Amino acid sequence: MAQEKQTMANPVVWFEIYVDDINRAKKFYEAVLGVQLDNMADPTGTSMRMASFPMQMDVPNASGALVQMEGMKAGGASTIVYFQTENCTEEENRVVGAGGSVMKSRMSIGQYGFITLATDTEGNVFGLHSRK
Length: 132
Hints:
Blueprint: E1 14-18, H1 22-33, E2 38-40, E3 49-52, E4 63-68, E5 76-84, H2 88-95, E6 101-108, E7 114-119, E8 124-130
Parallel strand pairs: 1-4, 5-8
Antiparallel strand pairs: 2-3, 3-4, 6-7, 7-8
Helix pairs in contact: 1-2
């Protein structure tokens, strides 16, 4: 018997951006996105350090955290997290001043809006997305 497929409005529930210097990375994302990241308790009881992006536990959108953990290096482009913005040009203009770099300046993705690709202070690639 074939298994019935579930449909989900937003299947992404969490993301993690691995960093080498959590304080530097936290400062970078706070400066670019204009949000405050909150330090989190280590859920594993090891030496993991985490700083979460703003989140509401009862809202079905994805949130996530910066994670500094032994054995998990920062950098590379195996995963790209896109942050929703009102107009990605504004956040793009803050990337360099916060210590990162812009890889691809604001570009159209057709009916889906616009994106910017940038690199943070840890060498991680991330995206900024806006509808306008």
